[in-house]
Design goal:
about 210 residues; 2 strands; two-stranded antiparallel sheet
Length: about 210
Amino acid sequence: MFNRIPFVVKNLLIINTLMLLAMSINETFMLEKFALFYPTSPFFKPYQYITYMFMHGGFAHLFFNMYALFLFGSVLEQVWGSKKFFIYYMITGLGAAAFFTFTNWLVSSGYSPIEYRELLFTPTVGASGAVFGLLLGYGMLFPNSVLQLIFPPIAIKAKWLVIIYGALELALGISVPGSKIAHFAHLGGMIFGFILIRYWHKKGRMYY
C-alpha cells in the first residue's frame, strides 16, 4: 500500500515524520531553528517560511495533517503530476505563512509590551496551511465529490466542506485573536490555493 502512494506525498509523509522524531530528541533546538517566528523576533530566519511546514507540535498534530495530506494530496498529485503538485503544496504553505505574518502585523500595533513579547517568542509549526490549500484544491476540482466525515459522522459535498471550513477559520481568526491555533495561516493556504488554481485555469495550464 505504501508503495502505491504518489512520490511527493510519500516523501512529505516521511520528512514530516522524521522532523517530529528529531523534535523528540531536541525540541528546543528544532523549534528555535526550524519553526516560524515573527520577523522581528531574535529567532527569526527567512528559511523558516519553508521549514515550519515540516514541523509539528506532537503526534496528534502530525497524524491529522498527514492523514489529510494522504487523502487529498494523493488525488491531486495523480491529477496534476508530481511537479505541479509539489509547486502547489509549497506555494500554499508559503502563502499561509505570509498571510499569517501579515495579519499579525496588522494587529500588533495594538499589543501591549507583554503581548508583543509573546508574539516575538511564539513559534508557529505545522503543515496545516498547505493542507487547507489541498482541501481547497480538491474542492475546486471535485466540488460534487461526497466526503464522509468522522466528526460529525455525516456525508457532505466537497464544495460545501471548503466553504464551511473557510468561513469557520475566518470567524475564529477574528473572534479569538491570539489563539494558539493559526487560523489565518489556514485561511491563507486556502486563499493562495484559490489564486493559483484560478491562474492555472485562466492560462489553460491546469493539467500540465
